[in-house]
Amino acid sequence: MKTKRTISFIALAICICIAGFAKAPKYVFYFIGDGMGLNQVVATQYYLRSCKGELGITPLGFAQFPYTGIATSYSGDSDVTDSAAGGTALATGHKTYNGAIGVDLNANPVTSIAEMAHRSGAKVGVATSVTINHATPASFYAHQKSRNDYYAIGTQLGTSAFEFFGGGDFADNINPNDHSAPQLYDLTREAGYAIVRGYDEYKDLKGKQDKVLLIQKEDAVENTLPYAIDASKKDLTLEKVTTAAIDHLYKKNHKKGFFLMVEGGKIDYACHANDAATALQEVVDFDNAINVAYKFYKKHPKETLIVITADHETGGFTLGNGSYALNFAALQAQKASQAGFSRIVNKMRHDSKDNVTWKQMQKALTEYFGFWDTVQLRERDEQALRSEYERSFTGEKNVKMAESLYYRDEPISALAVRILNRIAMVSWPVGSHTAAYVPVFAIGNGAEQFTGQMNNTDIPKKIAKIADYK
Fold it and tell me: Taking 70 as the threshold, does the pLDDT of residue 16 lie above it?
């Protein structure tokens, strides 16, 4: 009798525990590292270890989450996805054609997980390090046949009525087909949003507005957030945007919780440029943003789910060049992105009235890449740099810029990055996307569902089921 009673109490306790854990999470974080394949993650960990002068890896915070998996990323019309189809798959659970935003293969609108969360009563935020109407963030609130119709996408930001948006700025604030049409800034304000520029301006808002769009200051160099390697302390960062998003969504009547998507969009930009040092620091920056969510999770462990993945891999990033070694320590010498050093070279051109000397260029290459100082060059590397200098500054009148998907850079900047990549013993076979697996990491309530191999469309479906979004 005693044994039966003991068993009954155990069974009851198990049932109570199961019932407790079966409760849907109130707070859902969905992080997407654009272009972040498996090698981008492991390379960053090698890089962090090399900063200590040691072999091996120093784990990123999110790479230590207890549940991990891998996902395929093919689109509805290609084995290699673009960010629009990849973002749509991760947002809606539907495969679509490359270039599509929030629509299926027949261009019919499909509901995103953010829209489902909002419909279920949750507060919703969408944040990114690139433009707020770029492919991945747009996939969560817009429905357009083409990712390139930035103005039309931007008009749907306000009509979504999501409580928080954050990012660099708008792409195409003005309608390119009708300059008399209202600017996106005006339409967003009319929809009830406070547009705040910079983190300090957000803090000054002090919760007075229900809906917020947080973007870069007006004097920003780009309409994206700066690369982490180029950023100053005054710049808006993905970490600050994530902090503001949580602050706004949590204190604004959080009884039904919130859903927040955060994209590390400039990982992809750096990988398109094949700029290893910049890409790895973008992954670190992404990890810093995730850590903000992790701190929130630590306070609300039973009510929070965090899922991290990527829309695709960019660049075919390869670790090793056949010599059975890596030299990530060399990447520590790089102090500016390829695009950032191009701006420095442009300023040198301007200040010298296009009369930059080789000695001045050597000094800049030493300062920003460590050449002839901490990084020793082969004779042919030095010759290549000198030849490019002569071609760009004393020879051809029309310099052919180094073009990647998002930048047109000075050729000597692109050459310096290529040389440093070779010294670090990493390589890039392409400047576009690949069909490689992407990683999945998860922690919190329901995180055990994100293990093994899955399709990218499985991820939002799992989140919706776990969070009970309808």
Answer: no
Q: How confident is the model at residue 208 (pLDDT cuts 50, 70, 90)?
A: confident
Query: Residue 13, class by beta-carbon neighbours within 10 Å (0-12 exposed, 13-18 middle, 19+ buried)?
Result: exposed
On the CB side of 332, CA atoms within 13 Å amount to: 13
In sequence order, the 6+-apart residues with CB closer than 8 A to the CB of 142 are 101, 102, 133, 152, 153, 156, 157, 160
CB 163 within 8 A of CB 124: yes
Tokens at 401, concatenated: 């810029």
Bridge partner list, 28: 259, 305
What's the confidence (pLDDT) of residue 62? 98
Class of the CATH domain delimited by 25-318+431-467: alpha beta
Q: Is the dihedral of CA 221, 227, 230, 234 positive or negative?
A: positive
Query: pLDDT value at position 19?
Result: 41
- DSSP E strands in 119-268: the ranges are 123-128, 164-166, 193-197, 211-215, 258-264
Q: Which amino acid is at 199?
A: Y
Longest CA pairwise span in the chain (Å):
98
So what's the pLDDT on residue 185?
Answer: 97
Distance CA 207, CA 443 (A): 29
The partner residues of 263 in beta bridges, in order of sequence, read 32, 128
Q: Provide the terminal-to-terminal Cα distance of the chain, rounded to the nearest Å.
A: 46
The pLDDT confidence band at residue 396, using thresholds 50, 70 and 90, is low
Q: To the nearest whole percent, how much of the chain has pLDDT over 70?
A: 94
* pLDDT score of 22: 65
CA distance 260 to 266: 18
Can you give the residue ranges of every domain in the chain? 25-318+431-467, 327-424
